[in-house]
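Kindly inspect the following:
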Amino acid sequence: MRVASVPQSHIYVRHLSHPAGCDSVVRLPDPIPTDQRTVPGGWWPPLMLNPSWIEQHHNEFDVFHVHFGFDAIGPDALADVVQALKMYDKPLVYTVHDLRNPHHPDPAAHTEQQDVLVPAAHALITLTPGAAEIIEHRWGRRALVAPHPHVLPSARIEAPRAPSERFVVAVHVKSLRANMDPLLVLNTLASTVAELPDAVLQINIHDEIFDVDNHWFAPRAGAALIAFDRFAHVDVRVHPYFSEDQLWDYLSAVNVSVLPYRFGTHSGWLEACFDLGTAVIAPSCGFYAEQHPCGVFTCTDYTFDADSLEIAVRAEHTRWLRGSPVPRADWGARRAERIHLAQAHQELYEEVLS
């Protein structure tokens, strides 16, 4: 069974296949743009989301499955894609990863895009029961709930964590995407961590926000973040994007990763932390807490409760002092989950083809 997956090379999509490679689903590789404007993995911009690509390649796939990549594609263009799939009798599957696009400060554009994709899809998938309830409420459609697969390889998941002499609370502000409000969170964390013995707050920032020629240039926010370095218990680090191994090393070396989000739905970052045994403190927006056990603080577009964040941090510090284990993935369970996901997707593809 041949699936045109948008994209194919993303880690989430690659880990929908059977770990032993013994399922019958073949996902087409991502077309590479001739101008090489790609993210790592080569799936951006998504050339499959184009009626002309469907016209030229419709004999090469049986099912069209959309995951990510339609951020910059308007609803009219998406409607043309849907019409092209109908013309060639190709079923559409859509996995609703995001009910709110984390890169868009205004939700309207993403809603308009989903108003095309959700009604047109022959089948819908999402990651949590809470997201499925929202989908049914908004569009009257039921979605298959299928959890996020593991992110890290088995060797990393099985590797023991090194003991930590200090309690490290980390916030990776990346390049300050739209759904982040790190300064609000960091003010609370800086004061809380200062009161905890053997604790440090680590702030990581991508260096591109200090590059005047970069799209993500944000000098005022960058200066405010750097200013936290004046505290003895705060460690501010500015660096390029981590490689995959560097990212896993970073997450393995911290005790808690705090997600400074005002809005969002699900998190691959949280899944990576679960694979490594790094505790997560997530905002109350979205459905992060339905993915895996984690601390939760009140934070949405309209609300922020500093006390709830302080309580969550103190709870993790107490856990660390006691030497209590953080919920962590077991490779056997993750492998079984992945096999189940591969079977569920294959069955869904067979269903829409019938």
Observations:
- The chain has two domains: 2-150+335-353, 154-322.
- The chain has 13 helices and twelve strands.
